[in-house]
Design goal:
The protein is mostly helical and about 130 residues long. The chain has helices at about 5-10, 20-30, 35-45, 60, 65-80, 80-90, 95-105, 115-130. The radius of gyration is 14 Å and the shape is globular.
Length: about 130
């Protein structure tokens, strides 16, 4: 089972009624940022070397784009690493509460499968690397 499917399989809305896709998780996270923090978020995505081993996104691809287009561009650029990149940038812009929420969102809910639990543990471990 692919990484994105595992993440989607363990991501739940707070209401517990609907599973979220990884794209929805990232979009919801970006929607929690104010305008200035969203611009800082995009700025970091454009900086070479700011995101560990991950490439920068060209400025032209993020200029004057909304949160949905930003999510699309992030998934085109980072694929299965988009949630990790999101966490890295959130730490850089001092949005540690959102990092915590992101980590909780992708953690295994109670009663899940052992495969999902293993993926949740690895994602949880990755989230501590963001800090």
């Amino acid at each position: 089972m692919g990484f994105l499917r595992r993440v989607a399989g363990v991501s739940l809305r707070d209401r517990g009624q609907k599973m979220e896709t990884p794209q929805e998780v990232v979009l919801r996270t970006l929607e929690d940022l104010g305008a200035e923090d969203f611009e800082k978020f995009k700025w970091y995505l454009q900086q070479k070397g700011a995101l560990e081993e991950f490439p920068a996104i060209p400025k032209s691809k993020l200029e004057k784009v909304n949160r949905m287009k930003t999510v699309d561009q992030m998934f085109l650029t980072y694929s299965m690493n988009t949630i990790k990149v999101t966490g890295i940038v959130l730490v850089k812009i001092n949005q540690n509460e959102l990092v915590k929420n992101l980590s909780n969102t992708i953690s295994e809910p109670a009663g899940g499968s052992s495969e999902a639990a293993a993926s949740g543990q690895s994602l949880q471990k990755s989230s501590t690397e963001w800090l």
